[in-house]
TrEMBL record:
The gene is Donson. Coiled coil: none annotated. Its main location: nucleus. Belongs to the DONSON family. It is found in: Nucleus. One of its GO terms (biological process) is nuclear DNA replication. This is DONS protein. One of its GO terms (cellular component) is nucleus. The keyword Nucleus applies. Keywords: Developmental protein, Nucleus.
């Protein structure tokens, strides 16, 4: 019975016999092969290929429905859910790079492929969220700093390539003069639109301090491996470190003065341990200047308290309030249940430092009471556990931000004392010019690729933007693409994770603020009015950030 199974070898065959058997089977499978004799069943073309007997000595026949290991790896992906067409999938799910120097895969082409296959050599894949937002004409403000954007569209990005010298210069001038550019809803010939190309150059500009061209000064958290080995003459020269820090203090103070005068909307201070976001009054729903610090440690918070800086931990307080409400609900339920049974509820003692029960028992002198330090450490145990986590975000408001400015200038732990970043001042990032700042531009390039849709390849065009991409740049770029790509594009956004918590709602919303008031107060801050309207809204993304953004028919959907 075993010999009747196709492809079964009852014993080990020598190589010459196997080669003869292989040639015989190849002749049978040829189209012009002679038909089988009468009474014999014709060979089935869809039968599984005979497995190599030299790969294993286990020649036991397989069950009829058991696929070969090689076939399991080639099994096509499952079809899309019932009622959902492949074309209804988000555009970014259809993109896949096609390299000419790589052979085509034997697997059946899937109708949905991950966009991140285009650049898997640069970044790790990002988990795709499942629930998108409802379509809206504007996406929420994202206060995190992006390190990379990848825009995709069925329309080419040739308008963003090879800017002329005059267009580049005009873009720089428009940025410095805060010129407002209002494009039509749709541009028929984007490549021929000088206004569009100048506005694109304008949206790529940002300001940086310090400027050391041979070093990558953002991100700073976890950047040791990118800086190690680079020339750093200040690391062992204290006099040079003092000069760098003095120059940095002047630039930092200049930025804060611009912020206070409402001539700068916001700026970032990026150290090797934490990041600080200063926002002007009127942004993020607050009517006073705010500064958010993340992540923090118990030592940093203790030093801020010693300097008289009043701050709050809004995420910790929110979690504490939520737990308290849950405990109250559970306590009420337990009391109600005990009353139904007829039991008397046990009295609760909320005072942790009360030891009156020891006196009642008469053993107050025999039991060692915990000292004040032990009680303090026990109370701060939860606070220590959140160090270096997003929940450790600290919020400073109003005049305390000026005290924070002086604290950061004089803080010894602001600069690393050892390692590749030793002696290097923190990085200052700003959307507008400031004293000591250097004009920089984000790096942009267009990429052409292929997308597989319904077993066929279609041209797909992408635009990659790399650098410290701040909130105003993200909004400006999407506004340009809306007009240039005719209201249809998608994007993958890569976030500097320590800054994602800046999107949390900190409870600083002021009911007296409105759009007209913010526009009037911050009219000279250097931002486009529409960008200002977006950044003045209260954050709604929580501790996450926008990962995927798609525009279809001039309406946004996003996933965070």
């Amino acid at each position: 019975a075993a010999s009747a199974v196709p492809g079964y070898s009852p014993g080990f065959k020598k190589p010459p016999a196997m080669l003869r058997l292989k040639r015989k089977r190849l002749r049978r499978s040829e189209p012009g092969a002679a038909p089988p004799p009468c009474g014999e069943a014709p060979p089935v073309p869809s039968a599984p290929a005979r497995r190599n007997p030299f790969s294993s000595l286990d020649n036991a026949p397989r069950a009829a429905g058991t696929p070969q290991p090689r076939e399991r790896s080639r099994r096509p992906p499952p079809p899309p859910p019932a009622g959902e067409s492949p074309s209804a999938a988000p555009f970014w799910q259809l993109l896949e790079s096609v390299c000419e120097d790589k052979p085509a895969r034997r697997a059946e082409p899937s109708e949905r492929t991950d966009i991140l296959a285009l650049t898997d050599d640069l970044h790790l894949p990002v988990a795709v969220p499942e629930v998108p937002s409802s379509p809206r004409h504007e996406f929420p403000a994202d206060w995190s700093i992006k390190t990379r954007l990848l825009f995709m569209s069925s329309q080419p990005f040739t308008w963003a390539e090879h800017l002329k010298a005059q267009e580049e210069a005009q873009g720089f001038a428009q940025h410095c003069r805060a010129t407002e550019t209002n494009l039509p809803q749709s541009i028929q010939e984007p490549k021929l639109s000088t206004e569009l190309r100048c506005a694109f150059q304008q949206s790529l500009v940002y300001w940086l301090h310090p400027s050391l061209p041979w070093l990558q000064l953002f991100p700073r958290i976890g950047a040791d491996r990118k800086i190690v080995g680079k020339a750093s003459p200040w690391s062992q020269d204290e006099a040079l470190q003092q000069v760098l820090m003095s120059d940095w203090s002047v630039s930092f103070t200049s930025l804060y003065n611009l912020l206070k005068a409402k001539l700068c909307p916001y700026f970032y201070v990026c150290t090797y341990q934490f990041t600080v976001l200063f926002r002007a009054a009127g942004l993020a729903g607050s009517d006073v200047i705010t500064a958010v610090i993340s992540p923090t440690t118990r030592g940093l918070r203790e030093a801020m308290r010693n300097e008289g800086i009043e701050f709050s931990l809004p995420l910790v307080e929110e979690s504490r309030t939520r737990k308290q409400k849950n405990s109250e609900v559970n306590l009420e339920t337990e009391v109600a249940n005990s009353l139904e049974v007829g039991e008397e509820p046990a009295p609760s003692d909320d005072d942790d430092e009360s030891f009156s029960w020891l006196e009642e028992m008469g053993v107050q002198d025999k039991v060692k009471k915990p000292d004040a330090i032990s009680i303090k450490l026990r109370k701060e145990k939860h606070e220590v556990q959140m160090d270096h986590k997003p929940e450790s975000l600290a919020l400073v408001k109003g005049t305390n931000t000026f005290t924070l400015l002086n604290f950061l200038i004089n803080c010894k732990s602001l600069v690393a004392v050892a390692g590749p970043q030793a002696g290097l001042p923190p990085t200052l990032l700003s959307p507008v010019a400031f004293r000591g700042g250097t004009m920089q531009t984000l790096k942009a390039r267009s990429i052409n690729a292929k997308a597989r849709v319904h077993l066929a390849y279609e041209d797909i065009f992408s635009l990659e933007v790399v650098g410290p991409i701040m909130p105003h740049s993200l909004h400006a770029l999407t506004t340009l693409l809306k007009a240039a790509q005719r209201g249809a594009f998608s994007a993958v956004l890569y976030t500097h994770e320590p800054t994602a918590v800046f999107n949390a709602d900190l409870g600083t919303a002021s009911p007296a603020l409105n759009k007209e008031t913010v526009r009037k107060d911050l009219t000279a801050c250097g931002l486009h009015p529409k960008t200002l309207d977006q950044l003045s809204q209260c954050p709604t993304l929580g501790k996450s950030s926008i990962r995927f953004l798609e525009m279809k028919d001039y309406a946004y959907t996003w996933k965070s």
